[in-house]
Amino acid sequence: MRLRLIILSLFMAFALGDNFCYAMTPAQKRAKAKEIQMRKREAAKRKAAKKKAAKAKAAKRKRIKDGKPLLYVYTYNKQTGDILPASHVIVQDIHAYPNKRPKVSKDTDSKRARISRGLPFGTYWAVAAKTGWFHSDTVVFKHQEDEDTIRLFLYPETRLTFTVTDSLTSRPVSANIIVRHPEGHKIMQTTSDSIHTLLAVLLDDRVPYYTIEATSPDYYPFNDTISDYSSYPGVIMSPKEIKSFVLHKIYFATGKTHILATSEPALQELYQFLQIRPNQRIRIVGHTDNIGSDRSNQVLSEGRCTAVKQQMVERGIAPERIEVDGRGERDPIVPNDSEEHRQMNRRVEIVLL
Questions:
Q1: End-to-end CA distance of the chain
Q2: Which pTM value belongs to this model?
Q3: Is residue 275 part of a domain?
Q4: In this structure, are strands 199-203 and 70-77 parallel, antiparallel, or unpaired?
Q5: What angle do CA 286, 288, 294 make, to 5 degrees?
Q6: Is 33 exposed, middle or buried, given 0-12, 13-18 or 19+ CB atoms closer than 10 A?
Q7: Residue 307 within a domain
Q8: 40, part of any domain
Q9: pLDDT tens across 136-161, in order?
Q10: Can you say how many angstroms the Cα of residue 309 is from the centroid of all Cα atoms in its chain?
Q11: Domain membership of residue 225 as a residue range
């Protein structure tokens, strides 16, 4: 009898584990409960994942059965490789006739920069576009697996700004400008003027070079290649024959012959012109508007011409190379009927002798 009790006690000890030998503390009970809870959660996760995989597999079979296997299209920045959201994507069957409605025409989402669409297996082309970007290359691909992935890369626009100037005076030149692609078609055609000559054109970094042409009646034709978009010097045109030009941005004190400090760039321009043509003689001709008497305007124009000549002499130009002629208000280029026109008539003209 005693032996039986001993055997039964040992059996219960093995069956119940440590709890038979001693009672668990509250902390041990909480740890045990937590462990059981974690095991239940892991089991639930495994069950959910298995259910999700089965559901995805069933959905995949249904898509293929219905003839709509899934296609993903992603858009990226070609230079950085970053995703590029809100790009418009077009996907079309390669055998579709022209102007047929595309299979896909929608914007990528703002989070993953992608679109998803169920399309039948086949051969397609895809392209992406976005404002401020050159469109992607057209990609031709075979859609032959469910969840096929296509990546499209867009190129940021490069804005090239340049000026059109005279090679001798650095003054703006009015000219007809044409920028061409290497294949010969025009990228831009515009006309610069003699006041605002800062022009801009959008160029594609994928193209190795562009050609630029400029024509103007008084200048030799200009033709150049643009390959370095970051440091293009601009269009510099050589004049056929110069007879005279207006010295722009020369400023005097109101009603006086004193030249203001803001005129320094114009004075330097005239000095450089005389420097590169050491045998050139000039006549400085001064003009005024019609405000004031004829006599006062005549004296004022003569004094201003003399002031410009003095500036050149002080910089090292021989005085015998420079003549002065004050014309007063006698030769307006526009009627003196507004302040803007009167400002145009107040000018200093350089005549080549």
A1: 144
A2: 0.44
A3: yes
A4: unpaired
A5: 110
A6: exposed
A7: yes
A8: no
A9: 889 999 998 888 899 999 988 878 88
A10: 45
A11: 158-237
The answer to whether 239 and 170 are in contact (CB under 8 A) is no
Say if CB 204 and CB 171 are below 8 A apart.
no
Q: Is there a single domain that holds both residue 126 and residue 171?
A: no
Residue with tokens 């509250």: 26
Domain-embedded: residue 285: yes
Tokens of 258: 């004193």
Q: What is the spatial distance between Cα 347 and Cα 325, in angstroms, rounded to a whole number? A: 12
What CATH number is given to the structural domain containing 285? Answer: 3.30.1330.60
Please determine, for residue 320, whether its predicted confidence score (pLDDT) is greater than 70.
yes
Read off φ and ψ for residue 57, nearest 5 degrees. -65, -40
Tokens standing for 244?
Answer: 């005279």
Closest CA to 123 of 137, 144, 148, 146: 144
DSSP 8-state symbol, 338: S
Say how far apart CA 349 and CA 309 lie, in whole Å: 12
Query: What's 110's domain CATH number?
Result: 2.60.40.1120
**Residue 174 and residue 191 in one domain:** yes
* Contact (Cβ atoms closer than 8 angstroms) between residue 246 and residue 238: no
Backbone angles phi, psi at 270, to 5 degrees: -65, -40
Residues 6+ apart with CB under 8 A from 123: 93, 94, 95, 140, 141, 142, 143
70-77 and 148-156 beta bridge pairing: parallel
What is residue 108's three-state secondary structure?
coil
Domain count of the fold of the chain: 3
| 165 lies in the same domain as 151 | no
81 with 147, same domain: the answer is: yes
**Residue 227 dihedral angles phi and psi, to the nearest 5°:** -125, -35
Question: Which of 220, 237, 254 is the endpoint of a domain?
Answer: 237
Confidence of residue 167 (pLDDT cuts 50, 70, 90): confident
